[in-house]
Amino acid sequence: MPQSEHDNATMAHASPPTFKSVLDRYKGVGPGFDLLRVGLAVAIFYGHAKYIAGSSTGPDMVAAALAQTGMAMDAARGAAFDTSIWGSFKRSYHLALVPMFFALSGFLVAGSAFRVRALKPFMAFRILRIFPALMTEVTLSALVLGPLLTSYSLLEYFTDPKFVRYFGNIFGFVYMLLPGVFETNPVPRMVNANLWTLPAEFYCYLVTALLIVTGLFFKRQFYLAAIATLTITAVAASFLGNFGVTVRSLYGTPVVVYYFLVGTLFFHLQDRIVRRWSYFFGASAFALLALAFPKGVFIAPFFLTYATIFIGTVDLPKIPLIQSGDYSYGVYLYGFPISQALISAMPQFRGHESWFALLAGGLTFAFATASWHGIERPTLKLKR
Fold first, then answer.
1. Which tens digit of pLDDT belongs to each residue from 13-30?
2. pLDDT band at 5, cuts 50/70/90?
3. Mean pLDDT value across residues 140-156
4. Among 20, 24, 109, 148, which is 20 to 30 Å from 276 by CA?
5. Which residues of 103-120 are buried (b: 16+ CB within 10 A; e: fewer)?
6. Are 323 and 341 in contact (CB under 8 A)?
7. Quick one: pLDDT band at residue 352, thresholds 50, 70, 90?
8. Alpha-carbon distance 204 to 210, whole Å?
9. Sign of the C-alpha dihedral, residues 114, 115, 120, 123?
10. Angle formed by the axes of helices 119-140 and 328-345, to 10°?
11. What's the CA gap between 55 and 351, in Å, rounded?
12. 326 vs 332: CA distance, rounded Å
């Protein structure tokens, strides 16, 4: 081998790995992404199960979600939940889960956009991934779960405006209530709190679609400058005008959309971002520290996104059940209504969060498995 080629090979071998170099080894598929998605979904499910069982405290998500429906009395009841977690180290943990989902989604959706590079297939793929399972969950909740557990007569139930309004969730018009359902639960009347993220998801896809149409999504320098400008503006707005700042509740739509955009930026720069364990631990520490302070809202995303993508590139243990499908979306969709239904039908589980989480978790995973193999996977095959 000529000396110059030998030197180049030695330098290439000595260069630190990047996210792209690691992903290329696995043909572009992060070896830890599947387990990471399921892990995040299960963590969110368990947090919900604890306070649905009435034995743990929950964030003001209950109040905020109900307030969206104009139910002031129920919002006040939700606010009565002890929110002491927002003054403890648990704040960072609770605030990290959904943003991690969005950051990971941004990274993966950007990959899809770069592969198709056209609006129609991109939007078709998003529709096939989101709507069939969502439509099924909303329909089952309204037509099966509701009639079985409502305190209304069936005539009153089906003629109540809330029944029709609930189907708007399929199109992103979030509404949490069904007539006479879960009225006496520890978390009253809320059918599926996880639907609050739907508008944010739709905004993410809309922004990406507009950038694809204009071609700006594929111009790295422009994209880097745009995200830098957005970040500086958001940080200034958060410190000067409390934009996006939250003290005792989960982050709102603008913040999680921003996490999505940071995830897309990481895809753009994956060949430049060095992957090291020391960086991972440092980024994780900085992210948790920033999340502990309300005005760290737009400082944490870059650190938390690095930690999230890093986990996705780790060759985590292979669990055959997890490897057999992507069950994270099903767990996220079905976990809350199933838990609410169980605590309504079997109130003896109130206060027994561990046993309740096991029962509700097993049933949720069964629904998630059926959703993947019966609905999500068959519709995704239409991508071909």
1. 557 899 999 999 988 888
2. very low
3. 96
4. 109
5. bbbbbbbbbbbeeeeeee
6. no
7. confident
8. 10
9. negative
10. 10
11. 4
12. 11
Find all residues with CB under 8 Å of 292, minimum gap 6, and list them.
89, 91, 92
Calpha distance 261→224 (Å, rounded):
11
Please state, for a pLDDT cut of 70, what percent of the chain lies above it.
Answer: 87
Average pLDDT rounded to a whole number, residues 165-181: 95
57: phi then psi, degrees, rounded to nearest 5:
-90, 155
Across the range 209-235, mean pLDDT stands at: 96
Q: Give the residue ranges of DSSP H helices in the chain.
A: 3-14, 19-25, 33-52, 61-68, 72-79, 90-116, 119-140, 146-149, 154-159, 161-166, 198-214, 220-241, 253-268, 277-291, 300-312, 320-323, 328-345, 353-371, 377-380
Assigned token pair, 252: 């709102």
Q: Which two tokens stand for residue 333?
A: 């969709």
Checking if the pLDDT of 377 tops 70, the result is yes
* Nearest CA-CA partner of 129 in 384, 376, 322, 378: 376
In this structure, are residues 328 and 100 in contact, taking their beta carbons and an 8 Å threshold?
Answer: no
Average pLDDT of span 316-343:
90
Residue range 60-78: average pLDDT? 43
SS3 173: coil
Report yes or no: 65 and 81 within 8 Å, Cβ to Cβ.
Answer: no
Residue 356 contacts residue 348 (beta carbons within 8 Å): no
Do residues 17 and 277 make contact, with C-beta atoms less than 8 angstroms apart?
A: no
pLDDT of residue 264: 98
**What percent of the chain clears pLDDT 90, i.e. is strictly above it?**
73
